[in-house]
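queue> holo job accepted (aspartic acid)
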Amino acid sequence: MLRVQKYGGSSVASADHIRRVAARIARERRAGHDLVVVVSAMGQTTDQLIELSRSISRNPAPREMDLLLSTGELVSGALLAMALREHGLGAVSLSGFQAGIRTDTDFSRARITQIEPGRLHDEIGRGNIVIVAGFQGTTDDLEVTTLGRGGSDTTAVALAAALRAPVCEIYTDVDGVHTADPRIVPAARRLIDISYEEMLEMASEGAKVMHNRAVELGWVYDVPILVASSLTDDSGGTRIHGGTLMENRNKVRGIAHDAGIARVTLLGVPDRPGIAAQVFSPLADAGISVDIIVQNAGRHGMSDVSFTVTRADLPATLERMRAIREDIGAADVTADDNLAKVSIIGAGLTNAPGYAGAMFRALRDAAINIEMITTAEISLTCVVHQDRVDDAVRALHRAFSLETPDDMPR
Ligand code: ADP
Ligand code: ASP
Ligand code: MG
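queue> job finished
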């Protein structure tokens, strides 16, 4: 059987880790499986490369930044191939380009547009274990791009789809997807399984255990994803899929949080048609995603418009807002860069009253102020101060009884 696996940064953090991963892959190879293995950069390599670039330039060219960051995954891939050869096994490591991964031209957040799997099939046919550098691809002009932080997950799911693997296995430093980040809530429970829809919402609201684009691809191409520990052989893990779930769906499935949010407010904006287009079009053109938007009811023909972006996008956002402030006649532009968001997620939230009230009460009881609120089909999100977000996650986890097992097969 063809298996597509991905090992994250913490699983390949050192030479020892790489040897351990190689031993694991060698066992699977000897059991008769063909293997395509996607790797992340070793440990904190990507963060270190970003730091390094900052020490050289405050505003590096996007193409240079992506070329720089793509090197992390090349290192871990080549080392893993060497480690496998030490086991006497055929193994070859490939860059994103060599693996046929094509993307659009959006540096630092490129999307995979196509996979040409010819080389992959050739190498598998030759009996090689194929190691693919995650998180990267090339444009039609042969520029190297990266897929956004955490993007190696997306490489793995895209390869599983292109190679028609029955499942995409994501190995990481936790034993699966939990009801909240186990680093913040030690009592968080591993979920046996979760729907694509719920996992996409968790990932999009900040649960970095899976890259949101990876879940989206899994959903579109119907590739089930197994998230499991790279340290233990048989932890069970969490299955992300589109079938009937084992657990009772009629409740909150998990809490996600994102500690890196910034809010921008345009004060005293004239209340007239076209303003929203004028404010948000330049951001869209710059590839900046706006998350929560709130417009306060206008008085005397004026209103305030607030919206959130990721903290990393704040400088570019402010630059654009200051450029249009006079044109739109806004009195001032202000920003808060110390916010976070916390979300409750579950298919059971759809049309079910009572969840919002329970969420607000739990935050009130923990004396946490809510800065902004937004609702979606299967989630409810509150923006809170960054220094209270961990408390907020814990309070909500308790309030929705997520530490209590609820996984009786129906
Ligand atoms: P990798 O390097 O393997 O890609 P990541 O650091 O990207 O690993 O993702 C794993 C981390 O995600 C965990 O260590 C955990 O702290 C965090 N995490 C956040 N939310 C969750 C969740 N709901 N379930 C499990 N892990 C989570
Ligand atoms: N190395 C990249 C990052 O740290 C991609 C990944 O690990 O998935 O974001
Ligand atoms: Mg990751």
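queue> Residues 68 and 91 are 25 Å apart (CA to CA).
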